[in-house]
Design brief:
Blueprint lengths: L9 H13 L40 E4 L1 E7 L18 E7 L2 E6 L2 E6 L7 E7 L4 E7 L2 E6 L24 E6 L7 E7 L6 E7 L2 E10 L30 E6 L7 E4 L17 H13 L23 E5 L4 E6 L2 E6 L7 E6 L7 E6 L5 E6 L20 E7 L2 E8 L15 E5 L6 E5 L5 E5 L7 E8 L12 E7 L2 E6 L3 E7 L7 H7 L6 E2 L13 H14 L4 H16 L2 H16 L8 H15 L2
Parallel strand pairs: 23-27
Antiparallel strand pairs: 1-26, 2-29, 3-4, 3-30, 4-5, 5-6, 7-8, 8-9, 9-10, 11-12, 12-13, 13-14, 15-16, 16-17, 17-18, 19-20, 20-21, 21-22, 23-24, 24-25, 25-26, 27-28, 28-29
Helix pairs in contact: 1-5, 1-6, 3-4, 4-5, 4-7, 5-6, 6-7
Length: 619
C-alpha cells in the first residue's frame, strides 16, 4: 500500500488554513482528515473537597484523587518496614534519585533500588542497609552519592552505631558508591565534612567532563576538631576558617572517585543581616509548653547567657543548581539566595531575598527558562501539622518570585488548598517541574497533605490542577508520614512515602491539562535525574508539542475557535502525509501562523506553535 493513498490532497490542507483565517463561525469543511473533538477547557475543582475528612489507616487509608491516577503502591522492603510502630523515625523514606529504569529511594537507614520498568509493578532490585540519615541520594553515571548526618552513622555501614563522643568510625558527610552493578554496590569512600550532610546537590559543569562537584548543606552542629581536623565552630572574627556561614564543595574526579575531596568552603552566607521571620502560633507554643510540663520538663528553652550577635543564617538547607544558566538557588534558613555557579568549585552569592511570612527556607526550583524561582517554607520542620484550617495560607507555603538578572521580585504564595487534620504532618516540601511545553507546572509533596500539581505560568496566580491525598496514619495520634518528595521522571510521577513506601502516578487529561499536553510531556526523556541538579528541558519537534500549543491557545483565547479548528485540521493532514508533501503542508501552515501574530492576544504562544511547525517542516 502506498502511504500517499491515505493522504488528503495538499490543496485541501491549504484550503483549510485559508478557511480558518477568514471564518467567523466554528463550522469547517466536512471532508478532510479526522481530528479529535475540540477539548473542553472549562473546569472546576470538586466541591466539597474530597481530601477533607479521609479515613485513617496505614495501608488501608481512604484516598482522594483529581486528574491524577495512582498506578501502583509498593510497600517498603522487609529491611525498611517498621513492625513496631506505624512510623519508626529510623526507617523513614527520604529523597529519590533516578537512573535508567531504576528509582533509588533514600531511607534514614540506607536506600532501596526499585526497578520501575513496569510502573504498574515495581520490583525490588536491592536494599542496602547503611544508617546515617537523611540518606538523600543522587546519581552520576556509575556513581551514587548518599548524605549522612546523624551521630550513629558508621564508615563501615554497621548498624551498631558509634558510642564514643569522638570517633574515627563515625561517618558524617557524603558516601560514594560505585554502582555499575547496581544490585551489588561498592562503597568507595566517605568524604567527611564538618557539619555532616543533611542534603547535597550534584553539580555538573558543562565545561568540565573530568569532574563532578557536590555541594554539601549541613545543618548539624560543627564536629569537634578532635574527630575531624580543621573543624571550627567559632565566629568568623575569632577564626577566619570557621565553618559558619559556609557550604562545603566536594570535587569528585570521574576517573578516580576514590580521590574525592573537599575543594572549597565558600562563605555564601557571609554578612547577611538577620531576617525577620514568623515563629509559631500562640496556641501551638502553649500546647508545646503544656506537653513539656506534663513530661516534667520545665527547663528554659534557650540557655541563659549573653545574647548572641545578630547574624543571618549559618547554613543552607538545600541548594538547587541550574548549570545551563549558570545559577543556583539556595534555601538557607532565613533567606533564599541566588548563586553564580559558572565556576562550580567556587559559587558566589549574587542575590538574596527574605520574607517575614517564611519560617524556614527549605528548597528551591527554577522554571525552565530561568525567569521564575519558587522557594518552599518548611514551617514546623516537616513533622508538625501546618495545613490546618486555622493556619495562615501564606505560612508553610511556596513563595513564587520572578527573576530578572539578579533581582528577585515576589509575586505570590501557593499553599495546599485542602485543610488537613491535627494528626497529619503537612507543609510545603520537595517537588519538580512537569515538562509541559509552554507552561510552568510543578508537582510537589506535602507530607500527609499528599501531592499537589499546580500551574504557576502566571506567577501572580498559581492554580492547582491535580492532586492525590490519603487519610492520616492515625485519627488520634500524629505519626510522621506522607509524601517526602514527588517528582516527574520519564512519563510518571514518583512519590517517596515516608512510612508507606513508593507511590507511582500518572496524570489524566482534563480541561486544565489536555491529552496533547501530557503526550508532549512524555516526549521528554532523561537517562538519569537528580532534581536538585536541574536540567534544561528541550522538547523535540513533534506533533504532540504543536497540538499542546494549540490547546493552550484555545484555553487562553489566543485565536478564534474557527482558526484553531483549521490549524488542527492542517496538522492532521500534514501528519498523515510524508516526504515533500508533509514538508510543504507544514511550511504553508507556519507561514499562515506568521499572519496570526499581529492579531492574537497570545502572540508568544502563536510564535511557539509556528516555530515547532517550522522545525517539523524541516524534518
Amino acid at each position: 500500500m502506498k502511504r500517499e493513498s491515505l493522504v488528503p490532497p495538499l490543496s485541501l490542507a491549504i484550503g483549510l488554513i485559508a478557511l480558518g483565517a477568514c471564518a467567523t463561525s466554528t463550522s469547517t469543511a466536512g471532508t478532510g482528515p479526522s481530528v479529535a473533538p475540540t477539548p473542553d477547557m472549562s473546569a472546576m475543582a470538586p466541591s466539597p473537597d474530597p481530601r477533607v475528612g479521609l479515613r485513617a489507616g496505614l495501608f488501608n487509608a481512604a484516598e482522594a484523587a483529581w486528574n491524577l491516577r495512582l498506578v501502583s503502591t509498593t510497600k517498603p522492603s522487609a529491611a525498611f518496614l517498621s513492625t513496631e510502630t506505624p512510623s519508626d523515625s529510623r526507617l523513614w523514606n527520604s529523597d529519590i534519585g533516578f537512573t535508567g529504569h531504576y528509582a533509588i529511594q533514600g531511607n534514614f537507614s540506607g536506600y532501596q533500588v526499585w526497578d520501575i520498568s513496569d510502573p504498574k509493578k515495581p520490583t525490588l532490585n536491592s536494599a542496602y542497609v547503611c544508617p546515617g540519615s537523611q540518606s538523600d541520594v543522587s546519581v552520576y553515571h556509575n556513581l551514587l552519592f548518599e548524605s549522612s548526618e546523624s551521630l550513629n552513622g558508621r564508615t563501615d555501614c554497621g548498624t551498631q552505631g558509634v558510642s564514643d563522643t569522638v570517633s574515627k568510625e563515625r561517618a558524617r558527610g557524603i558516601r560514594i558508591y560505585e554502582i555499575s552493578d547496581i544490585a551489588h554496590p561498592r562503597l568507595l569512600k566517605t568524604v567527611q565534612t564538618c557539619r555532616g550532610s543533611h542534603t547535597h546537590t550534584v553539580v555538573t559543569d558543562p565545561n568540565d567532563n573530568a569532574n563532578v562537584y557536590v555541594y554539601i548543606s549541613g545543618s548539624a552542629p560543627v564536629r569537634s576538631s578532635s574527630e575531624l581536623a580543621g573543624c571550627s565552630a567559632l565566629n568568623p572574627e575569632e577564626d577566619p576558617n570557621s565553618e559558619l556561614f559556609r557550604i562545603e564543595v566536594i570535587q569528585v574526579p570521574v576517573a578516580h572517585p576514590e580521590d574525592a575531596h573537599v575543594v572549597s568552603k565558600p562563605p555564601i552566607l557571609a554578612n547577611l543581616q538577620p531576617a525577620v521571620r514568623h515563629g509559631e502560633l500562640a496556641s501551638d507554643s502553649a500546647a508545646a509548653a503544656a506537653r513539656r510540663a506534663a513530661a516534667g520538663d520545665n527547663r528554659p528553652q534557650r540557655p541563659a547567657g549573653p545574647p548572641a550577635p545578630a547574624r543571618g543564617p549559618q547554613q543552607c538547607h538545600d541548594i538547587t543548581v541550574y548549570p545551563a544558566i549558570g545559577l543556583a538557588g539556595g534555601a538557607c534558613g532565613g533567606y533564599g539566595v541566588l548563586l553564580d555557579i559558572r565556576d562550580p568549585a567556587h559559587p558566589k552569592r549574587i542575590g538574596a531575598a527574605a520574607d517575614s511570612n517564611f519560617s524556614f527556607w527549605h528548597s528551591a526550583t527554577f522554571n525552565n527558562d530561568g525567569t521564575k524561582m519558587l522557594f518552599t517554607d518548611e514551617w514546623g520542620g516537616g513533622t508538625q501539622p501546618r495545613c490546618r484550617s486555622t493556619d495562615k495560607p501564606e505560612w508553610g507555603a511556596d513563595a513564587i518570585f520572578t527573576l530578572a538578572g539578579t533581582d528577585l521580585t515576589f509575586r505570590s504564595y501557593y499553599k495546599l488548598p485542602a485543610a488537613q487534620t491535627t494528626t497529619e504532618n503537612c507543609v510545603a516540601h520537595n517537588g519538580s517541574l512537569v515538562p509541559v511545553p509552554g507552561r510552568d507546572i510543578m508537582v510537589q509533596g506535602w507530607y500527609q497533605g499528599g501531592i499537589s500539581v499546580f500551574d504557576f505560568t502566571d506567577a501572580a496566580r498559581p492554580k492547582e490542577i491535580a492532586y492525590f491525598d490519603r487519610g492520616p496514619l492515625s485519627k488520634d495520634t500524629l505519626y510522621v508520614a506522607g509524601s517526602w518528595s514527588a517528582y516527574w521522571y520519564n512519563g510518571h510521577i514518583y512519590s517517596s512515602e515516608i512510612a508507606r513506601g513508593l507511590d507511582i502516578f500518572e496524570l489524566t487529561p482534563s480541561p486544565l491539562l489536555s491529552q496533547n499536553e501530557i503526550d508532549a510531556a512524555k516526549l521528554v526523556h532523561f537517562d538519569e535525574m537528580n532534581i536538585q541538579d536541574q536540567q534544561k528541558i528541550v522538547w523535540p519537534a513533534a506533533f504532540p508539542v504543536a497540538r499542546a500549543y494549540v490547546d493552550q491557545l484555545q484555553r487562553s483565547g489566543g485565536l478564534s475557535a474557527a482558526r484553531l479548528e483549521a490549524v488542527r485540521q492542517a496538522l492532521s493532514a500534514a501528519e498523515a502525509a510524508s516526504g515533500s508533501a508533509r514538508g510543504a503542508a507544514l511550511t504553508e501552515l507556519a507561514t499562515s501562523l506568521d499572519g496570526d501574530l499581529s492579531g492574537s492576544s497570545d502572540a508568544t504562544k502563536v510564535r511557539m506553535l509556528r516555530d515547532v511547525v517550522r522545525q517539523l517542516a524541516r524534518g
